[in-house]
Amino acid sequence: MSENVVPAQQPAQTAPDTGTGAAANIGVVGLAVMGSNLARNLASREGNTVAVYNRSHERTDQLLAAHPEAGFVAAYDYAGFAAALQKPRTAIIMVQAGRATDAVIDALAAVFEPGDIIVDGGNALFTDTIRRERAIRATGINFVGAGISGGEEGALTGPSIMPGGSDESWVTLGPILRSIAAVAEGEPCVTHVGHDGAGHFVKMIHNGIEYADMQLIAEAYDLIRHGTGAGPAQIAEIFAEWNRGELESYLIEITAEVLRQVDARTGAPLVDVILDEAGSKGTGVWTVQNALGLGVPVSGIAEAVFARSLSSHPEQRQVAGDLPGPAQTLTVPDEAAFIEDVRLALYASKIVAYSQGFDAIRAGAMEYGWRIDLGAIAKIWRGGCIIRAQFLNRISDAYAAEPDMPVLLTAPYFVEAFTRAQSAWRRVVAAAAGSGIPAPAFSSSLSYYDGLRAERLPAALVQGQRDFFGAHTYRRRDMAGAFHTLWSGDRSEIEADGTH
């Protein structure tokens, strides 16, 4: 989907002098790979002149020497950095989340003035952003938490950007971010998400969906390999073919490339040489934790996080290898039909993951008082970001038709997709379970789908159990109010206020 990303082509232009000697309209603090690439992207866009600062002066000098065409304005302390910026001063921080971010914010706040703008472009926890915004607001300085997705390449050529912050800050920041964002179907992949921590919240959910998407793709690969005996290079061609249809996405595209790669040292497929242990940097875990707090089931994302956790404990898997179960071999009578079943199961499960993610965004917006346009979020994820995919247009269309739609899965386009996919989805999950091949994201997505469809869930029994051991009360289908049963001895039912 690289055609959706507009590359940096325009040379940097010198900004007008405001009379203070300041030359730059935007600054970047933190010049590791992401920060350097973002600074180069900014400098390449007409109208931008970029001031740069890094704690290590050597890194600043290396960037200037490597890219003299960028016309960077170098600063070697925070006072010099502030002096290089036009008012309202605008600086993007690209440093490690946590204490390092707090330290840079404090240093900038000491040299900035009311009306200036500090932007945190890292992967900060949104509650930290809320805290920081509240503290900085008291000084009159604007603080913006901005999610930036697309990795190193996106930072350089055009990321998807999810800024929060005040309306005032967006007036200055909006044109700058639009100048560097990826472009999908003629629209820049950036929007003012909402106030204080809204941008980093949406970026967190984006990353949670990314976890689920990657796990689902990995399960699809594993099932095809078990079911057909095809090697990684052959399966790469299957994914390349899928990428020409409704599954078209960045992650499907790069999966084909990963599976084609041969290890230079051994000559074996690289995927067979890589250790099967995947870690987590936190955003997937944050998504699950916060969704639980909001009462939103994100089972596909959760299973993806848990799958990484399980993979990271080889000592447990080693001692559990002799546990009874099927031999994890899968025999299919028709390989082509099985591959198509897996494709449909993958598509259906991906829809569930995205739907759960958007449910979490809606719940977060209600909890924290943000006005988030879900259709606009789908649009800015169409280019630049890791989860960019063809069907995000369908999500945007669905919310445009019904902004308050309670369940994305019920949009007509997705109902039709489930009509086509559900039989295949069930066959794949059953085949995996029968053969002892783990497919937790496929399975949990299907269970969630069936839970939504169910006329009555066994939660009634759970409520009865809770009332039995803890007098937690329950509600009835035929009467209003809360009720408690005297489970031992006299089994009569009383209302929560004590009346019979």
Molecular structure report:
The protein is an alpha/beta fold and 500 residues long. The protein is 52% helix and 9% strand. A seven-stranded mixed beta sheet has the order 3-2-1-4-5-6-7, sandwiched between helices. It has a three-stranded antiparallel beta sheet with strand order 10-11-12. Strands 8-9 form a two-stranded antiparallel ribbon. Helix 9 runs antiparallel to helix 10, helix 13 (299-311) runs antiparallel to helix 19 and helix 16 (374-380) packs antiparallel against helix 17. The longest helix has 34 residues, at 335-368. The chain is globular, with a radius of gyration of 26 Å.
Task: State the gist of this model.
The chain has 500 residues and is of the alpha/beta class. 52% of the residues lie in helices and 9% in strands. It has 20 helices and 12 strands.
- Order the strands across the largest sheet as they lie in space: 3-2-1-4-5-6-7
Approximate helicity band: 40-55%
Describe the biggest sheet?
Answer: 7 strands, mixed
Q: Assign the structural class, choosing from mainly alpha, mainly beta, alpha/beta, alpha+beta, or little secondary structure.
A: alpha/beta
Number of strands: 12
Taken as a percent bin, the fraction of beta residues is: 5-15%
- Number of continuous helical runs: 20
Name the shape in a single word. Answer: globular
Radius of gyration: 26 Å
Low-confidence stretches: 1-20
Q: Average pLDDT across residues?
A: 91
